[in-house]
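hiii so um. not sure if this is the right channel but i have a protein structure encoded as tokens and i wanna go backwards to a sequence. like what aa goes where. can anyone help
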């Protein structure tokens, strides 16, 4: 779990980025008193093994952080609308796209499909 937290702090937007962004950084691993960070498949298996109770606890913690840190919740709705750019198209994405993961979106594909992308352009 520590490796997952460090991956978030290091800017990994998906577990798939751990092998390229976090694992090669041995100095960062030593700073966290680790010889090396876990491989992405190990982290994924760890998350897959969570019980329903553990998932609920993780969701509760994530929601508490979101409520405390979210800029969207501090948006002045009386002053202006909150505009969201939502892309739900199942367009193919390359394996080099930010946050891309191998998977499916209703149809078989060669690499992956974006599931959704949401952007709030006016929130800084």
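sure thing!! here u go:
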């Amino acid at each position: 779990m520590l490796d997952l937290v460090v991956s978030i702090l290091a800017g990994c937007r998906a577990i798939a980025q751990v092998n390229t962004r976090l694992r090669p950084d041995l100095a960062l691993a030593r700073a966290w008193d680790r010889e090396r960070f876990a491989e992405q498949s190990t982290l994924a298996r760890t998350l897959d093994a969570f019980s329903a109770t553990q998932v609920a606890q993780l969701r509760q913690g994530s929601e508490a952080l979101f409520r405390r840190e979210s800029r969207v919740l501090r948006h002045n709705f009386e002053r202006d609308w909150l505009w969201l750019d939502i892309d739900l198209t199942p367009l193919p994405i390359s394996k080099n796209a930010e946050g891309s993961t191998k998977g499916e979106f209703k149809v078989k594909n060669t690499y992956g499909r974006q599931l959704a992308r949401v952007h709030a352009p006016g929130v800084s």
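oh and The first strand starts at residue 85 and ends at 87.
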